[in-house]
Amino acid sequence: MTLKGAVIGCGFFARNHLLAWGDVEGAELVAVCDLDPLKAGEAAKLTGATAFTDAEAMFGSRKLDFVDIATTMETHEALIALATRHGVPVICQKPFAPDITAVRRILATVEAAGLPVMVHENFRFQTPLIELRRAMTRIGRPFVAHVSWRTGYDVVAGQPYLDDVERFIILDLGIHVLDVARFLLGDATAIHCRMQHTHPTARGEASAVMVLEHEKGALSEVVCSYTTAIHPDPFPQTLVEIDGTEGSLRLLRDYRLELHTADGIETRDIGPSVPSWADPQWALIQESVLNTQQHWIDCLRQGCPPSTSGRDNLSTFALVEAAYASAERGEPVQIAPFVR
Fold first, then answer.
1. In percent, how much of the chain has pLDDT > 90?
2. Which of 85, 83, 94, 142 minimizes the C-alpha distance to 119?
3. How far apart are CA 207 and CA 205, in angstroms?
4. In whole angstroms, how far apart are CA 163 and each of 156, 167, 198, 211?
């Protein structure tokens, strides 16, 4: 059975969502919606779907099996509530909401209705990170990791609203990298964060260093920066080092994975594939969008919860809230109070 869906929000990054839906097996995009009629019209031409500028009207005129919300975080709660009233499951872009209180309200709404909700947390669906996790079976018990996402690429140029947000890199990008730390090492019990305002125009923090204590005993250092001059720039890659009791792994620039054991070094390329509509420069991100959306459809068809369900994402969002609390207090913060 083919599931019929809609996309709400047809802006800069949503183009990846729109194009990826054309490649998702078992799904058909039948409607697109944006407050800007030009954006909605362009999305309709791109996908062959019907354009709307009013989400309520769209839900009223189309029988939908799911909706993909790709708008700014401030609009998510109201749009998810609207979808819930119409009985439509939701996949929603990150951040799920501006703060964890809103996340809890959203979860209460969708869980009371018994509807699935997934957060579009696409980093853990990147091929290199999936392959890295598989390779972890060869290094014994992981005990320390370094997860780094640093660039000098001007992310504000394509998304100028980021200039005005008070919570910048941790909520915008760090939420992805913190989720990667959870994906690789499991949930965390505590976090210690330091952040800096290093961007020339942005109000919010543009760099952060976070140390996590994980439930199974591992430590991870998560480093994020939007203002790092580095050549060649690894953007948009996440670079990872993991030390285990029987070996270590290094995910390096250009998707090179190194496995170090007592027997020596094994090296292989674990780069992403390039979807037909993608730009090779952006294939890492664009393929992960496709992988994320395919996972959502597979879970809907099989009746199982997605790996980045709204409930799971509460644990990632708790790390974000705890990171800001740690930076403000100048000390490590326990995670448990933020998950409740």
1. 97
2. 94
3. 6
4. 6, 10, 12, 26
Please state which CATH number belongs to domain 124-292+315-339: 3.30.360.10
Residue located via tokens 């189309």: 62
**Structure tokens belonging to residue 291:** 């992988």
pLDDT digits (tens, 9 = 90+) for 254-279: 999 999 999 999 999 999 999 999 99
Q: What is the DSSP letter of 254?
A: G
For the chain, give every domain's residue range. 3-115, 124-292+315-339
Can you give 108-156 as a three-state secondary structure string?
HHHHHHCCCEEEECHHHHCHHHHHHHHHHHHCCCEEEEEEEEECCCCHH
- Which of 3.60.10.10, 2.60.40.420, 3.40.50.300, 3.40.50.720 would CATH assign to domain 3-115? 3.40.50.720
CA–CA distance, 13 with 83 (Å, rounded to integer): 21
Record the pTM: 0.95
In eight-state DSSP terms, residue 238 is P
Give 70's strand partners.
Answer: none
